[in-house]
Design brief:
Blueprint lengths: L14 E2 H4 L4 H4 L11 H16 L11 H7 L12 H10 L41 E7 L3 H11 L2 E8 L9 E2 L6 E15 L2 E7 L12 E5 L11 E6 L18 H39 L1
Parallel strand pairs: 4-7
Antiparallel strand pairs: 1-5, 2-8, 3-5, 5-6, 6-7
C-alpha cells in the first residue's frame, strides 16, 4: 500500500478531474460500454491508465488502451467475461504492456473462461505493429482507504480504480447521491473515481461507470456517498503510473498513429477509383495502338 501523508494538504470541497485537466477531458469523460461481458475490471483499469498517461504528459499523449488486448492476452487476470482481478491488470500493464488497436468484442468471450491472445492488430490501416504499440506502466499500488488519501492521490496523479458491491437497487439509479437501501448483493463491480463533491449536504464520489453513456441521467457517471465506505468503494482502491524513459518520454518502441476508419475508408475508396481510372486509360491506350497499327497495315 502506498504511504499517505496529507499533513498540511488542503483538499477542496469539490474536485472534477475533467475540469482540473482540460487537455485530457476527452479521455477522462469517456464512458465505455462493456455490454453483456463482465469486463468492468478491464474497462476500469484501461480508463485509469489512459487518463493518467494523458495527465502526466500534459495532454500530449491521448492514447486509448485496448480493453480487448487486456481481456484476451492477460491469461492470469482471471476469467475474461466472467470477471477479473484489478491488481493483475496492473501487473500485466507494468510487465507486458497494453496496446491500443484491438477493437472490443463483448460477445466473443461471453461464456468462455479462457481466451485466445492474438498478437496482431486487426485494423489494416493502423500503421503501428502490435509489438511496437505496447505502452507500459512503471508501478502500481493500493491506495490508502482513508477518504482524504484517495482524494490526495486523485489530485496529484489523476483518477483511480475502485471496486464496489452492486445491490439490486443500484440498477434503478438515475441521479443524486446513491446510498444502498434495499436488495440483495449481485456482484462486485470495478469503476473509475474521477472526483468528489457534496449534494444536499451529502458528500459523494464522482464515478465513471462502464454501462454506456445512456445509463442513468448523468451520461454514464454516478455519485455515491463518500466517507462511509458505501458499498465498500473505499476498501480496494488501486492506481499506477506510466513508464517513461530517461528523456521523460512515454516508453513505447514507436509512436502510436491511428487513422479513424471513416477517414481510411474514404482514402481507400479514392485509391480504388484511381486504380480503375488508370486501368481504363491503359485499356484505351492499348485499343488506340491496335487501331493505329491496323490502319497502317490496311493503307500499305
Amino acid at each position: 500500500m502506498k504511504a499517505c501523508d496529507i499533513t498540511g494538504r488542503k483538499i477542496p470541497e469539490t474536485f472534477d478531474a475533467r475540469l482540473e485537466w482540460p487537455a485530457c477531458r476527452a479521455s477522462i469523460e469517456r464512458i465505455n460500454n462493456q455490454g453483456n461481458c463482465s469486463s468492468c475490471w478491464a474497462f476500469a483499469a484501461i480508463g485509469v491508465m489512459s487518463d493518467r498517461l494523458c495527465i502526466q504528459t500534459n495532454g500530449k499523449e491521448n492514447f486509448r488502451f485496448s480493453p480487448q488486448d487486456l481481456i484476451s492476452c492477460c491469461q492470469y487476470c482471471d476469467f475474461a467475461c466472467t470477471g477479473g482481478i484489478a491488481s493483475r491488470s496492473w501487473h500485466y500493464y507494468t510487465h507486458f504492456g497494453i496496446e491500443g488497436c484491438k477493437p472490443y468484442q463483448e460477445s466473443e468471450y461471453f461464456y468462455n473462461k479462457t481466451t485466445t491472445c492474438i498478437a496482431s492488430c486487426e485494423n489494416p490501416f493502423y500503421n503501428v505493429s502490435y509489438k511496437d504499440d505496447k505502452h507500459f506502466g512503471s508501478e502500481y499500488y493500493m491506495v490508502n482507504k482513508t477518504p482524504e488519501c484517495i482524494q490526495a492521490e486523485i489530485m496529484e496523479k489523476g483518477p483511480v480504480q475502485a471496486s464496489m458491491a452492486v445491490y439490486e437497487d443500484f440498477n434503478y439509479y438515475r441521479d443524486g447521491v446513491y446510498v444502498y437501501t434495499i436488495g440483495k448483493k449481485q456482484a462486485r463491480h470495478a469503476v473509475r473515481i474521477i472526483g468528489w463533491g457534496k449534494e444536499r449536504g451529502i458528500p459523494y464520489w464522482l464515478v465513471a461507470n462502464s454501462w454506456g453513456c445512456q445509463w442513468a441521467n448523468l451520461k454514464g457517471f454516478f455519485k455515491i456517498r463518500r466517507g462511509t465506505d458505501e458499498c465498500g468503494i473505499e476498501q480496494h482502491v488501486i492506481a499506477g503510473n506510466p513508464k517513461f524513459d530517461s528523456d521523460d518520454r512515454v516508453l513505447e518502441i514507436s509512436r502510436h498513429s491511428y487513422v479513424p476508419w471513416v477517414v481510411t475508408s474514404a482514402v481507400l475508396m479514392c485509391f480504388v477509383l484511381m486504380t480503375v481510372l488508370v486501368g481504363l486509360v491503359i485499356i484505351l491506350n492499348h485499343k488506340a495502338k491496335e487501331m493505329l497499327v491496323k490502319y497502317l497495315v490496311d493503307k500499305n
